[in-house]
Amino acid sequence: MAMIEIRNLWKEFGEDVVLERLNASIEAREFVTVVGASGCGKTTFLKMLLGTETPTRGELLLDGKPIPEEPDATRGIVFQRYSVMPHLDATGNVMLAGELEASRWLGRVFGAHRRRLRDDAIAMLKEVGLEHALDKYPHELSGGMQQRLALAQALIKKPRILLLDEPFGALDPGIRRDMHELVSRLWREQQLTVFMITHDIEEGFALGTRLWVFDKERLDPQAPEAYGARITYDLAVGRDDTGVLDDINADVDATARTIDTQTPQPTGEHS
Amino acid sequence: MKKLINRQPNRYARWFLGLLPFALLLAIYIGASSARLAENPDDPLLPSLTQMAEAVERMAFEPSKRSGDYLLLQDTLASLQRLGIGIGFSAALALIFGIANGAIPYVRATLSPLVVGVSLVPPMAILPILFIVFGLEELAKVMLIIIGVTPFMIRDMQQRTLEIPEEQIIKMQTLGANTWQTITRLMLPQIMPRLLATTRLALGTAWLFLIAAEAIAATEGLGYRIFLVRRYLSMDVILPYVLWITLLALVIDFLLNRWSRWRYPWFHATGQ
C-alpha cells in the first residue's frame, strides 16, 4: 500500500482555487522534490501534509487513514528559517524530542536517562557534522549549521515522513551542495521518506528520486486564481535529463510571470 | 571634513559629553542657590549642598528624636517592600495570563477583551475605591501598583507570546509535544527575558503609583516623607530624597538587566 495517497484533492481559499484534482501516491522510501512558481500551492500542499491546512475536497491519506489535522510526531519538518529553538544549545535542541516523550508533565529528564538521551543526541549531531558545536546556541551557528541542527532535531524522532520546506533556500551555493550530500546520505542511511519543496529545479533533479512540478494547466491571464495548480510533471529523476529540465523551466517561468503581474502574494505562501 | 552625521566621538569624548549636562545643571543650581542665600540666609527654596548634606545626615544617620528610628532607612524599606510585592505579583500574573492568552485561542477569546477593558481604567481614579475596600494599610498601596501595571504587562506578554514564530510551535508538535509541553518548554523559556524587559519598563509606572499612594495615606515611605516635609518647604530633604529614589530605580533597573543577560544570553545575542 502506498504510504501517502492523494485522491481528487482540491484546495480553495474562498474564490481562489489553489490546487485542483490532485491524484498521486507516494511510496515509503521515496524522495519527492517539488518545484513550481510562487503561488502554485506548493507550500499549501506541504501544510496539508503537515496538518496545518485541510483539503477543501478530496482525500489525503497517510497509511490508508486521513492525515491528522494537526502536526504530530509522524511528520518531521525543517523550515527555511526558525526551525530550531533559540533558547536551547545544539545538544538541548536534539534531546528535546526524547525529553518530551519521556516526561509528560515536566518535559525534562534527569540522571541516567538524561545521559542516555544526551549520548544519542551527540551521536546524531556527529552524523550531521556538528560534533564541534555541541554546546553552541543557534545564534552562534551559521545558516548551514542551523539547518544541519534542524535536520538532526527532526530525524532523532524518526518521523514516518520528513517534510522539507525550501530548507536550503537561504544558504550559499557551496554550503547548499554540502547540504545536498548530507540529505542524500541521511535519506539512504536512515531509510527516510522525504517530501521537499524547492525553488531550484536543478536541486530538485539532483536530489530526489521523483520530481513533481506544480503548475497551472489552465491559466487565465486576467484571473490567475480562477484555476488551481495540478501536478503537471511527475518524473522519476536522479539522472541528467536536460531537455525536460529546460521545458519545465520555461513553463514555470511563464506561469510565474503571469501570476506575478496579476496578484499580490496569496497569504499562506512565504517565499 | 566628514559630514556631521558620520562623525563619531571617541570613548573619552563620549564620557566628557555625557557628563557635561550634569555638571552644567549642578553649576547652575549652585550658582542660583548661593545667589538666593546671599540675599536671605533663611530662604528654603534652593538649599546649599551643605544644607542638603546636613539634612541627609539627620534623616539617614541619626535616630529620629520622636521615634528613635533611622527615617531614611525606614522609609526606604517600607517603599521597597510595597514596590517589590506589587511588581512581583504583577509580573507573576502577567506571566501566567500573558502566556495563557497568547498560547490558547479559547483563553484569549475569553480574557483578552477583559484585559483590554481593565487596562483602560485610569488607576488613580479608582484609588479611593481601593482605600475604601482594602483600608488604608499596606494592601491598598500594593493593590494600586498591581492594578496600575498588570493589565498592560499582560497585554505585552500576550503579544510577545503571539510573536513566537509559528514554525517553532509546529516544530514542537512534530517532536511530540502536547499543549502543556509546548508552553513549558518553548513559550515559557522564550518569554522569561521578555518579562524582565517589560518589568523594567513597568517599574517606572510602579514608582509613580507607589509615591501617589504613599502621599495620600501612609505613615512611612519615601513618598510619604516627601509630601510630609513639603508642608515646611523642606527642599533640603526633598531634593536628596528624589535623588535617592532615582538612584534606587537605577540600581533595580541595572540588576534586572544584568540578571537577564546572565540567565538568557541567547536573547541578548540575537539583538531582540
UniProtKB/TrEMBL annotation, chain A:
UniProt keyword terms in alphabetical order: ATP-binding, Nucleotide-binding, Transport
Keyword Amino-acid biosynthesis belongs to the record: no
Gene3D superfamilies: P-loop containing nucleotide triphosphate hydrolases
GO molecular function: ATP binding; ATP hydrolysis activity
PROSITE patterns assigned to the protein according to its UniProt record, in alphabetical order: ABC_TRANSPORTER_1, ABC_TRANSPORTER_2
The ABC transporter domain, residue ranges: 4-241
Domain of life: Bacteria
Keyword Iron: no
Protein known as: ABC transporter ATP-binding protein
Automatic annotation (TrEMBL), chain B:
Coiled coil (residue ranges): none
Keyword Transport (UniProt): yes
Domain ABC transmembrane type-1: 76-256
Compartments, as annotated in UniProt: Cell membrane
Residues that span the membrane, as ranges: 12-32, 83-104, 111-133, 195-218, 238-256
One Gene Ontology term, aspect cellular component: plasma membrane
Xref: CDD domains: TM_PBP2
Gene Ontology MF terms in the entry: kinase activity
Gene Ontology process terms (BP): transmembrane transport
Family recorded in the similarity comment: Belongs to the binding-protein-dependent transport system permease family.
Name of the molecule in the record: Lipid kinase
